[in-house]
Amino acid sequence: MTTERDYDVVVLGAGSGRSVLSEELAHLRTAIIDCGPYGGTCLNRGCIPTKMFLHVAEVAGSLPELSRLGVDARVDQVRWREIRDRIFDRIDTFAASGPEGARSAGIDAYIGAARFVGPRRLVVAEPGGDVEVTAAQVVLAQGASPVVPQVIHDSGVPFHTSDTVMRIEELPKQMLVLGGGVIGTEMAQLFWGLGVEITMVTKGPHLVKGVGEDIGRRFTELMGERWALHLNAEVTSVAERGDGIHVGLADGTTLVTDQLLVAVGRRPNTGDIGLDLAGVEVDSDSGRVLVDEFGRTSAEGVWALGDVSSVHQLKHLANDQARTVRHNVLHPDAPKPLRAKAIPSAVFSDPQLAIVGETLPQVLAAGCDAVAFTQKLGDTAYGWALEDTTSVCTVVAERGTGVVLGAQLMAPQASSLIQPLIDATARGLSARDVATTQMWIHPAAMELIENALLGVAEAAGT
Ligand SMILES: Cc1cc2nc3c(=O)[nH]c(=O)nc-3n(C[C@H](O)[C@H](O)[C@H](O)COP(=O)(O)OP(=O)(O)OC[C@H]3O[C@@H](n4cnc5c(N)ncnc54)[C@H](O)[C@@H]3O)c2cc1C
Ligand SMILES: NC(=O)c1ccc[n+]([C@@H]2O[C@H](COP(=O)([O-])OP(=O)(O)OC[C@H]3O[C@@H](n4cnc5c(N)ncnc54)[C@H](O)[C@@H]3O)[C@@H](O)[C@H]2O)c1
């Protein structure tokens, strides 16, 4: 027998969707549904565990580098299971408290896979039986999942994705990472830092999209000194043999590995959940739920946020959208637009990459007269301390006004260093104003940003 329940607001997905249901909605009848651990991708298998592992990997991976500075050190042993369990004991305990935490805040928390059976009408397959849930407003926040190329899927060969690889029992000797995007690069960094021999196979001429041609090329060269890189490559065959997994490439190369990690993108979770019955339109190419500037889908009273509907799959963006959608659910007659400008992102490799806004070619292609300036960290005082030879910051600004339009960084802690440039891009500030209306601590790494701003202000003629 199916139980039926009716609500004012139901959220599908307890990742970023959970924060839609804050205190401000306490006067409404609300529910949240998730089939996986509460906290979604970021907490359980994304941002948080990767960065906890990457910290360890970065420290361990940097030891051989010390010899350049006159200190010889080496890693004697990596206690993988201990590292893994320390990280996931903390995460799993937190995630397990999610449903109870929601219930104690007055939100009905369902644990089970949901599918639509009509407009704003869902069936949740709970352990105790199906529950039919209806609501005046529904928020779609069911995220995305790893894409697996057909050739791997059809081969029957065991493989990992980012969902599973951080929970393996033993570190392999070798790992082949398929995909040189953000996940592939962070995972390669993580396992390389812990002593695994990495081979990376990817489409395209360099790792990580969107950082600009120059940084993309420099970064790819750097990573190529650490692990074997097969660029512009296509996998044509995969088979398991006695000596390991054989991966054949279109150029005739055969690679043999202990473990295969697939990281070739993530597709929104929109298939097979009856979105057509709900009247929710989906882009057939990308699988994304189509939303307007306010996060409204094509179905009356249905909103969407995060990876299920965004071009950029980023946690801070999903969080920002959750805040906006929360407002819009409460004030549908006075909705606020989702933030579309100055969306920053970072890759937590070593060195880190960080970007915001546009690259110079993108700005010029859009018809704006702009200039760019690149500052090396090695030419600042802190860069001397690091003996840095690779870190750079490029700032793009409008010619004549010097308004900052974007920035790309490759540097230690680039994800933090970029913040004044995110501020400048978001608020349309001039590079000279940002550089000269405050003091910059000497001799801090942040002088990289100060000098880049002064350089681009000069180039822009301000
Ligand atoms: C390895 C990795 C590292 C990452 N690192 C970063 C980072 O450093 N910084 C960053 O900004 N972003 C990072 N991301 C991206 C970030 O994790 C996502 O952008 C973000 O978590 C998306 O949040 P969301 O709420 O849209 O989806 P999710 O957090 O995925 O939540 C969706 C939820 O919906 C549930 N669900 C799906 N379908 C159903 C259904 N039919 N019924 C019931 N429940 C369902 C799922 O179980 C899930 O809990 C990373 C991603 C990965 C994979
Ligand atoms: N630090 C962060 O913010 C962070 C970290 C991890 C993930 N994420 C988010 O997760 C998203 C997904 O990450 P991702 O790395 O899976 O996707 P991605 O789109 O960033 O990279 C996929 C890579 O795989 C390559 N590729 C695609 N198909 C291939 C194939 N068949 N064979 C070989 N290579 C192939 C692509 O050329 C690309 O380099 C990212 O776009 C990002 O938004 C963010």
From TrEMBL:
The keyword DNA repair does not apply. Residues 343-452 form the Pyridine nucleotide-disulphide oxidoreductase dimerisation domain. Keywords: Disulfide bond, FAD, Flavoprotein, NADP, Oxidoreductase, Redox-active center. Residues 7-321 form the FAD/NAD(P)-binding domain. This is Mycothione reductase. It comes from the Bacteria. InterPro entries: FAD/NAD-bd_sf, FAD/NAD-binding_dom, FAD/NAD-linked_Rdtase_dimer_sf, Pyr_nuc-diS_OxRdtase, Pyr_nucl-diS_OxRdtase_dimer, Pyr_OxRdtase_I_AS. Its cofactor is FAD. Belongs to the class-I pyridine nucleotide-disulfide oxidoreductase family. It holds the Pfam family Pyr_redox_dim. The gene is mtr. The keyword Oxidoreductase applies.
